[in-house]
Amino acid sequence: MGHRPVTSKGCGHASPAEINANFADLHEPFSGLQAKAEASRCLYCYDAPCIQACPTSIDIPGFIHEITTGNNSGAAKTILSQNIMGGTCARACPTEVLCEQACVLNASDEQPVEIGLLQRHAVDHLMAKNEAHPFKRAESSGKTIAVVGAGPSGLSCAHRAAMLGHDVVVYEAKPKSGGLNEYGLAAYKMVDDFARREVDFLLGIGGIEIRHEQRLGDTLTLDTLKADHDAVFLGIGLGQTNGLRIEGEDMGGVLDAVDFIEALRQSNDKSKLCVGEDVIVIGAGNTAIDAAVQSKRLGADNVTLVYRRGEAQMSATEFEVDLARTNGVNIRLWSAPVEITGRGAVEAMKFEKMTLDGDKLVGTGKHYELPADMVLKAIGQKMDTGPVNGFTIDGNKLTIGDNFETSVAGVFAGGDCIKSGEDLTVQAVEDGKQAAHAIDTYLGGEG
């Protein structure tokens, strides 16, 4: 997919006009004619591999065919019946390594069908019509479900459970719903307050109440939730960040990338946000890329992303790595953080050059230093295990059975907090959906 380039800022920090341009929609949405033309490229494969590559099993050839016939609302319903957060996934999903990579056109050296942009076109069309919610609730079961966390897995579980006739109360620690969709994705991926609008759309099914600033282990206890509800779903995500564990990490100007991104997403005037002139981002995932690119777009003079291994080992997708480079981000590989130096606030960062000895990463003894007045750490997150003390945990993740039930009876879980969880919005949505069906069976329904 093409994307809008960063606007050159000249010297100094970017102006408000430049920042507005830099944080415009990353991808140009399709017009109606463009959508029909792109949809016409689909071969409508039997046993389509793109469906197999989609964690939520959307009928991709089916919705694309509906677009070719002008039935955009029908296409949206096909998408949303499998993935109620199809609008966000169309914007933020790594389609280039999922459905689009599986497109059979790749085998003939053609560009794959731009499934993500077609999905966005259909869902945006339906949401813009502002009509009645496209799905109806089943007859009331008289049961209530507590969902902890209003992120993708929790909201997906809540919506599907409401469809199945249950009443749902969602408990969210933050002031807004949406989880990483609201707080953790780059601003240029989620323009026009889309995360909030998608939550409002989802709630149109009815039967869902959201209570904000309710944190498990603080204002909430599991015993209370189990007493007040017939089942509990945990979509608590990964609420803590990993540290570098090096000298100088507590200096001024050293921040967690997730906090930086959250502050940027919640700002109404990005031109007033503080960014360093020489920014170092530590990490190799999509969060690191989001932090680095947004630092550059805010007006940082030099942004360097540093990773201790090679590019082949980076967890960020090829598209995201290319995005960083086209936005002027320097990428330094085979470099391990050693020390952060400065007088009260960061002034420089020291690295050791790394190499592989067989499969083992080892230091070479060679060091170099980079100037820095801001360091953003994006080296992974972990679950806060305090609120789930007593659960079976493996590798800092909740262990679940085939039916998404945890080791505590009547308590289910999904998304990033479970052991099988992947760091993908679309997988979290699928977890929540499947968990809702499992909970329905647990409560005596047909699942």
As residue ranges, the low-confidence spans are 1-12
Largest β-sheet summary: 5 strands, parallel
Question: Architecture of the largest domain in CATH?
Answer: 3-Layer(bba) Sandwich
What's the CATH class of the largest domain, please?
A: Alpha Beta
Question: Average pLDDT across residues?
Answer: 95
Spatial ordering of strands, largest sheet: 3-2-1-4-17
Structural class: alpha/beta
What characteristics describe this protein?
447 residues, alpha/beta, Fumarate Reductase Iron-sulfur Protein, Chain B, domain 2, FAD/NAD(P)-binding domain, 3 domains, five-stranded parallel β-sheet, 16 helices, globular
Question: Brief overview, please?
Answer:
32% of the residues lie in helices and 19% in strands. The protein is α/β, with parallel strands linked by helices and 447 residues long.
Report on the structure:
With 447 residues, the chain is α/β, with parallel strands linked by helices. 32% of the residues lie in helices and 19% in strands. The protein has helices at 16-22, 32-39, 49-53, 60-68, 72-80, 86-92, 99-102, 115-129, 152-163, 180-183, 194-202, 222-228, 257-265, 286-298, 318-326, 425-442, and strands at residues 144-148, 167-172, 208-212, 231-234, 240-241, 254-256, 278-282, 302-306, 330-332, 335-342, 346-357, 360-371, 374-377, 381-382, 393-394, 397-398, 411-413. α9 links the parallel β1 (144-148) and β2 (167-172). The longest helix has 18 residues, at 425-442.
